[in-house]
Amino acid sequence: MILDVADLSVDYYAGRPARAVAGVSFTHHAGEFLGIVGESGCGKSTLLFGIAQLLSPPAEIAGGTVTFAGKNLVQLSAKELRAVRWRDFSVVMQSAMNALNPVKSIAAQYEDVMRAHGTRDRAEIRERSREVLKLVRIDPVHLKSFPHQLSGGMRQRVMIAMALLFSPELIVMDEPTSALDVVAQRSLMVQIKELQRELGFAVIFVTHDMSLVSNFSDRLAVMYAGKFVELGQTRQVFAEPLHPYTKGLLEAFPSIYGPRVQLEGIPGAPPNLADPPSGCRFHPRCPAVMPQCKDVDPPVVVVEGTEVRCLLYEEKVSGVA
Ligand SMILES: Nc1ncnc2c1ncn2[C@@H]1O[C@H](COP(=O)(O)OP(=O)(O)OP(=O)(O)O)[C@@H](O)[C@H]1O
Ligand SMILES: [Mg+2]
């Protein structure tokens, strides 16, 4: 086990406090690929920022721990964190390709990161920079290039290469492919997966596109309104989705196989997190809603190895239904 997130909560203090991450717990193992999916605004980026300790005001960790390699990251000082980040785990953020400095060459930006972590030797910096670019299949001549001279897909791969400079154990990625066209998305996804197999790092991959991660992730977490509502083996979740929200997400994506069917999707939108619904946060949109769902916040129940937060299964497990 390399990462243990326990009961992590994050609040935004802007006007009324909003709990964007509400008691998320999971563990992550070396070399494993975890996909996190959910609609826009359900707290995926906030969760990643909370794990990587990259939150800034008005966001604040309200509780919980993030244990990475035996240390609780929540309690580390900024200096201690800098030593771990990039070296042991790295982060590729949403719209990362716009995170590159437009007035510096790729070589200069890689050099900055390596120097900040104590690598002073110019030849070593040059060699490692060339290596990581080759890993993402970009010709090292582009070390001299500036970001505007590269395509969107290349910039995204340049960011992923930057995350690989120190061979971290864990790479956290927030929709790294979402700015790309569908073909480029798939090919970048395949490349990330190949690198992961080759280099053995673990990945936490956030996306709103379930079909994108279906073939790549070992485990899948479905997030709704700040909580994991389902977490299990990806294959199992796709074969037998348990939570009504997961079912709705799956129905929202067309299948290219099989007969034509009407897409159901999920009517409505995720709630305002400053004023979430009582009980199960999904109950106002849930097609399987029961009277008690308004009052009871569903605990986690394990069904065939999958964790699910839904009263439908609590009753089955306790034998009431
Ligand atoms: N700076 C902020 N101040 C106040 N509230 C915020 C802030 N940033 C995000 N939020 C709230 O936190 C919630 C979660 O936002 P977050 O960006 O984590 O969602 P997300 O799942 O990553 O969405 P997307 O798929 O669009 O990237 C949202 O409801 C949003 O309104
Ligand atoms: Mg996001």
CATH superfamily of the largest domain: P-loop containing nucleotide triphosphate hydrolases
Q: Report the β-strand fraction as a percent range.
A: 15-25%
Spatial strand arrangement across the major sheet? 6-7-8-3-9-10-12-11
Oligomer: single chain
Number of discrete helical segments? 10
Largest sheet: 8 strands, mixed
- Cα radius of gyration in angstroms: 21 Å
What is the CATH level 1 assignment of the largest domain?
A: Alpha Beta
CATH topology of the largest domain: Rossmann fold
- Poorly predicted runs are none
Distance between the termini: 36 Å
* Number of strand elements: 12
Named once each, the bound ligands are: adenosine-5'-triphosphate, magnesium ion
Provide the domain count.
2
Helical content (DSSP H or I, runs of 4+) = 25-40%
Overall pLDDT, averaged? 90
Order of helices and strands: EEEHEEHEHHHEHEHEEHHEEH
Explained architecture:
With 321 residues, this protein is α/β, with parallel strands linked by helices. The chain has two domains: 3-88 and 167-270, P-loop containing nucleotide triphosphate hydrolases (Rossmann fold); 101-165, no CATH class. The protein has helices at residues 44-52, 78-84, 106-116, 122-135, 152-163, 182-199, 210-214, 234-239, 244-251, 311-318, and strands at 3-12, 18-28, 33-37, 59-68, 71-72, 89-92, 170-174, 202-207, 219-224, 227-233, 301-303, 306-308. It has an eight-stranded mixed sheet, sandwiched between helices. α3 crosses α4 and α4 (122-135) packs across α5. The longest helix is centred in the middle third of the chain and has 18 residues, at 182-199. The relative contact order is 0.14. The model has no long low-confidence stretch (mean pLDDT 90).
